[in-house]
Amino acid sequence: MSTSSQRGFTLVEVIVALAITGLIMATVGGALFGMGQGFARVTERAQRQDRVFRVSQALRNSLARMTVPRYGKSVAPLRGEAGRLTWLSPLPESAPQAGLYQWELEGGNGVLRLHLTDRSQEQSLPDKVLSSDLTSLSFEFQGQDGRWLDAWSEASPPLRIRIRIATRSEGGWPLLSIATGQAL
C-alpha cells in the first residue's frame, strides 16, 4: 500500500485564511487612513499657528518702528478706536518699496484686514485679508501717565499698545503688547 505524503488545503482552510487576511488588511488600512487624517489636521493647525505668528510679528515690528512725521502735513502718528487702528511706519527692509506708509488694521463683518497707503505717493496697496473668521478685535493704549485707554487720538504716540484678536478657527490669539518707538 502506498500512502501519499502530499496534502493540500481544503476549501474551508483557504476561505478562513482569506478572511483573516482581509481583516488584517482592513485594520491596517483603517489605521493608515486615520494617521493620514491626523497628519492633515496637525499640518493645518501648524499652518494656522504660523500665520498667526507671522501676522503678530509684522504688527509688532511695524508698531515698534512707528514714525512721527517731521515734514509735510501734520498727521498724528497713531489713531485708535473700536475696531480700527491707524499708524505711520516704514515697510520692513525686505520690502521692495521704501518710504513711509500709513498702516490701517481694521476688523469688521468677520474680516481682519490690513490696508497700506504710501504716504509719499498717496497710493494704496491692495488690502490684505489677515483672517476671514474674526470674532473680536480690541485695542488698549497706555498714556504717559500709565493709564490704559480704549481709544487714542493724542498728537504723540502711546507708550504701549495692546491688541487682542480672536477668530473662530484659532480662538484667542496671543496678546500683542507692543512698546512704541516713543517708549524706547
Number of helices: 1
β content, as a range?
A: 25-35%
Radius of gyration: 30 Å
Low-confidence blocks of residues? none
What would the principal axes of the Cα set say about the shape?
Answer: elongated
Q: What is the N-to-C order of secondary-structure elements (H for helix, E for strand)?
A: HEEEEEEEEEEE
Q: How does the SSE layout of this entry go?
A:
Elements: H1 11-64, E1 78-81, E2 84-90, E3 100-108, E4 111-118, E5 123-124, E6 128-131, E7 134-142, E8 148-149, E9 160-167, E10 171-172, E11 176-179
Antiparallel strand pairs: 1-2, 2-3, 3-4, 4-5, 4-6, 7-8, 7-9, 9-10, 9-11
Task: Give me a quick take on this structure.
With 184 residues, the chain is an alpha+beta fold. The protein has one helix and eleven strands; from the N terminus they run αβββββββββββ.
Kindly list the characteristics that best describe this protein.
184 residues; alpha+beta; 6-stranded antiparallel sheet; 5-stranded antiparallel sheet; 1 helix; 11 strands
Describe this structure in words.
The chain is an alpha+beta fold. It contains one helix and eleven strands. The chain has one helix at residues 11-64; strands at 78-81, 84-90, 100-108, 111-118, 123-124, 128-131, 134-142, 148-149, 160-167, 171-172, 176-179. The strands form two sheets. Strands 1, 2, 3, 4, 5 and 6 form a six-stranded antiparallel beta sheet that branches. Strands 7, 8, 9, 10 and 11 form a five-stranded antiparallel beta sheet that branches. A hairpin with a 2-residue loop joins β3 (100-108) and β4 (111-118). The protein is elongated, with a radius of gyration of 30 Å. It starts with 10 loop residues before the first helix and ends in a 5-residue tail after the last strand.
